[in-house]
Amino acid sequence: MSEQSAQKHSFQAEVAQLLHLVTHSLYSNPEIFLRELISNASDACDKLRFEGINHPEYYENDPDLHVRISLDKENKTITISDNGIGLSEQEAIDNLGTIAKSGTKDFMSKLTGDQKADAQLIGQFGVGFYSGFIVAEKITVESRRAGLSENEGVRWISGGTGDFEVEQISKASRGTDIILHLREDALEYLEAWKVKQIVNKYSDHISLPIEMQKEVWQEEEAAEGEEAKGGKMVKTDEWEVINSASALWTRSKSEITEEQYIEFYKNLTHNFEAPLTWAHNHVEGNTEYTQLLYIPAKAPSDIFTREAKAGIKLYVKRVFIMDDADNLIPNYLRFVQGVVDSADLPLNVSRELLQESRDVRTIREGNTRRILNLLDGLAKSEDEKDQEKFKQFYSEFGSVIKEGLGEDFSNRERILKLLRYATSSNDDVVTSFADYKARMKEGQKAIYYVTADSLSAAKNSPQLELFKKKGIEVILMSDRVDEWAMNFVQEFDGTPLQNVSKGAVDLGDLQDAEEKKALEAAAEHFKPVVDKLSDTLKDKTKEVRVTTRLVDSPACLVTPEGDLSPQLIRMLKQAGQTVPDSKPILEINPEHPLVKKLEGTQQFDDLANVIFDQAVIAEGGLPEDPAEYVKRINNLLLK
């Protein structure tokens, strides 16, 4: 079939904006374009390996996969070619004209105009193809998908502005050629030594051979029956492999430098920032596999969305099987990136089979132990750099790893040892449960904690007043996940954990007999007021009672044992979930002037409701009827 006339298409709006950023030197290191395009070419070959398991005919007569780089100084072009899976015409339109499968709106909302930060986002969202426009004034892509006929090739052309052209072409070989028409200020990339240097730096670990044309001069041979040519030299082109062409994770750790580990991570994840740390191990036994697992330095932007995927690539005997193999890592460790290469799984393994595989469960458990050991080592290390790394890890992923308390019973104690909190004695997030336990007062029988919507709300919670008065330290929990996660934890190292906002306060030996006697006397004295409050607030409270936990505040809300806390109720409602009806207990401070004023006042109902609503506000909530609350406040002020 002859080539058809080209059809013009407009870029997706977000791509046009992205290209504008790229062409204005978004990437601080322009040579990165070659790494991105080689990585994409390698991925295309991996996909052919995978699809070729069920469709061996896709290999045609070209079974040896490779990436090739061609330099044309005369035409000022550099071409990156692969004989991988290739693109159909529609795939070229979809994949090269939009930010495909990358949460486009979320991606664009994160762009800040800061070149360094935005460059990292581009890597995270997997749009490295567009990095070619850093050095090219025009890009031509010629491709044919494996399985399609020679006349079903496609040519895609764009100058990186608002549109691109697509036409159908004939292409004898499957795979993709990306032809970069270089700008005048990027002609240094036509030098072979420069290309080799970049490949060795960024892409040496690619398991495929990366080949480059090499000029070879040799004496021309005479044809049969002709006289010798007299030593005439002619030039021929050969393909030279310029990388090690072995998967990095298959090498011995002693052979791999720190820089190589980091560059492999950057290539694997399309992230421009070095990882925080990593673990590389070959595991033998009933199940044999290799794991190379990285902990990123920064949390991805979608870490708390439903679309968040685990970053583990699965290989079987070095054959790529799938991205985002979430069966290989628990959800609370979904931030982990890396590679797992199994020697036991079948090549045609599917996501459904992964869920049922005993080998996969073994690998998952092994990966979990390895990451938790890695984090535990950082947490316990006396090295300042390791301590700083753990601090950075916890700042980025502390909220995520807490999910493991409800998801991973077998590792709950190990997770608890990694958690860090601020306390009523120290605002910094530095205290572990073990540290807290070592500082407990003599006679203290429980680890006390309070949950709130923010650190400030936790720190100023009325629930802490008695504890502060007695010098008892309380752990401050202010992550959204804390309230849910702590439902799965009853003790740490044999010591019970007690939420000070649930149930009646019981300080045991830390509360003397006189205090208990004073509480009984106050309860007796205020019984008429308590009964009247109970009647007035019967639609809002489950119970009203006198307490000694308050020092400066008139009242506070307490969650009945077994009920959901106000914070958890608010969180579930915000998530659109239905929650069972639950009323709090109102505890009043008999020594507070406002509470004493309840006796004999003519504005009992107004004052009672205001005291209740103020307790709601102190817990981080809002009155059920803010306008009515304001009206009552004004009424009390006027009278």
UniProtKB/TrEMBL annotation:
Keywords: ATP-binding, Chaperone, Cytoplasm, Nucleotide-binding, Stress response. It is found in: Cytoplasm. Residues 571-639 are annotated as: C. The keyword Ribonucleoprotein does not apply. InterPro entries: HATPase_C_sf, HATPase_dom, HSP90_C, Hsp90_fam, Hsp90_N, Ribosomal_Su5_D2-typ_SF. Residues 29-186 form the Histidine kinase/HSP90-like ATPase domain. Residues 1-351 are annotated as: A. The keyword Chaperone applies. GO terms for molecular function: ATP binding; ATP hydrolysis activity; ATP-dependent protein folding chaperone; unfolded protein binding. GO terms for cellular component: cytoplasm. ATP binds at residues 36, 40, 82, 95, 101-103, 124-129, 176, 351. Molecular chaperone. Has ATPase activity. NCBIfam families: PRK05218.1. Homodimer. Belongs to the heat shock protein 90 family. This is Chaperone protein HtpG. The gene is htpG.
